[in-house]
Amino acid sequence: ISYIDLGEFRGPSPDPDSRPNIKLAVFDKNWELIEDVFVTEFDENSSLHAGRPSVILHDGILYVSYDIENIDTKTHEEAKDWQCEVTEFEVVGE
User: Which of 34, 38, 50, 61 is most buried when burial is the number of CB atoms within 10 A of its CB?
Assistant: First the structure.
């Protein structure tokens, strides 16, 4: 499952200096968590903002796609200059 992680800044009014990151969680057949990893690692000093993740598995490669955009680190205004990114993960084992 790919998802947006807001870190410690969850709630109705997240810290404007926080940066959403994309994470990937892997579960077994019984929904026991196997691994939970960051796909992006933007911090409060970054001008990048991540969103809208999705996944697809093809020929043993798991592709995590998401968009990123720039934000003004002082005003927190979005540039609305979204670009698609894809990160690949090799699937090993069962």
Answer: 50
How high is the pLDDT of residue 6? 83
Beta bridge partners of 58: 61
- Residue 75 — very low, low, confident or very high, per pLDDT cuts 50/70/90? confident
Taking CB atoms within 8 Å and a gap of at least 24, the contacts of 47-55 are 47/71, 47/72, 47/73, 48/19, 49/19, 49/20, 49/78, 50/4, 50/19, 50/20, 50/21, 50/22, 51/4, 51/20, 53/2, 53/3, 53/4, 53/22, 54/2, 55/1, 55/2, 55/24
The 10 Å Cβ neighbour count of residue 84 is 9
Residue 47 corresponds to which tokens in the numbers above?
Answer: 């001008």
pTM for the model:
0.83
